[in-house]
Amino acid sequence: MPTWYRGDHWKYNDGGRAAAGYRGTAGDCATRAIAIATGIPYQIVYDVINEIAKRHEHPAKGRRRRSSARNGVHKPTIVRLLNANGWRWTPTMGIGTGCRVHLRADELPPGRLIVQVSHHLTAVIDGVIQDTHDPSRAGTRCVYGYWSKPVGGSRAVG
Q1: Is residue 1 pLDDT above 60, yes or no?
Q2: How far lies 46's CA from each of 13, 16, 21, 69, 89, in Å?
Q3: Which is more confident, 34 or 5?
Q4: Distance CA 36, CA 23 (A)
Q5: Distance of alpha carbon 89 from alpha carbon 149, whole angstroms
């Protein structure tokens, strides 16, 4: 087993979901990851995501449903929220490039990150995955890209 994978690469963190009064299972990884990485309370992130989706997403009949902070957020809503708050996207994978960066501390930069992997967003703070489970697949999971916190950036949302 690699030296970075000692069990301290992941820490349970629900982003404040339980403290906000939510119970049970949900597809809220985007809400949790944003709350964890930004330090903004879960309920505020939850409300802002739903408001952005309500204002900007207009699903046509027969198309997928609007983003939901509880059940899944479409990429344009995430992009709108994070761009508006000064976060910067760094792609790590492109069409035909193959996997170059994995979900592990020695392949990601330090700092507060919101990391995109297949069908999931997770927060990584100084190399430690902060999530309700370990999504790293023992360090083999490919990273599509990550959002990084601006230096000296604010905690504004919406």
Answers
A1: no
A2: 16, 11, 12, 5, 21
A3: 34
A4: 18
A5: 10
* Residue pointed to by tokens 């409300």: 47
CA dist 22 to 3, 12, 32, 117, 153, Å? Answer: 36, 16, 12, 25, 29
For residue 97 the two structure tokens come to 């490039």
Helical residues (DSSP H) of 4-155, grouped into ranges: 29-38, 42-56, 75-84
Domain ranges of the chain: 11-148
Amino acid at 5: Y
Q: How does residue 69 score in pLDDT terms, banded at 50, 70 and 90?
A: very high
- State the first-to-last Cα distance of the chain, in angstroms, to the nearest integer: 42
Q: Please answer whether residues 149 and 95 qualify as being in contact, where contact means their C-beta atoms are separated by less than 8 angstroms.
A: no
Phi first, then psi, for residue 77 (nearest 5°) are -70, -40
The phi, psi pair for 57, rounded to 5°, reads -105, 130
What is the Cα–Cα distance from 133 to 85, expressed in whole angstroms?
Answer: 27
H or E segment and range at residue 10: strand 10-12
Is 68 strand, coil or helix?
A: strand
DSSP, res 143: P
pLDDT value of residue 63: 55
CA-based diameter of the chain, in Å? Answer: 51
